Prior knowledge:
Helices cover 75% and strands 0% of the residues. The chain is mainly α and 183 residues long.
Amino acid sequence: MVCLKLMCDLLVLHPYFNYSQNIAQLLVLYLNNPKPEVRSIVSKCLSQIFREDKKGELSLFIVRKINLLVKSRTNAVHSEAVSVFLTLRIKDVNLDQEKEAELREKKFQTRRQKLLSMSKKERKASKRLEQLGKELLETKAEENKQTKHKTLTEVIKVVFTVYSRILKNDPTSKLLWRASQSE
């Protein structure tokens, strides 16, 4: 139990270090442990990771591993394996909010530039540098938004696959009943 708690703490505190996927893969297996206290510890850990994951990559990895667990056990898993999906931040993603924050930052930078008076040569050089910087930032921001959107889309697909597999194989499964009760 102590080792399990330590691994959970390590994964929550440092979700993107070298061995985080290995630990996550091991923790997912403990979602089907016969002891309820073990399942509780792991489900709380995974729920916290789902809530705090900014990139979505670790969440996607964990969701895929839960999918494999449900698939390999042919739905004979405990309800915690599915109930952790309720804490996924899929509905909380607002890409427009990020765009608004970028616009505010750009306005702040232009005001700051007006306050600083420079010589004519310095202004020309800074304008060129600003233009290049803006182009690089726009490209990078667009790539980040696209990868985030792709990752979240993939998470939704895998969660949908898990639920549809449960419905297809056993429509009266206790997994669906317990997951709906915990909402």
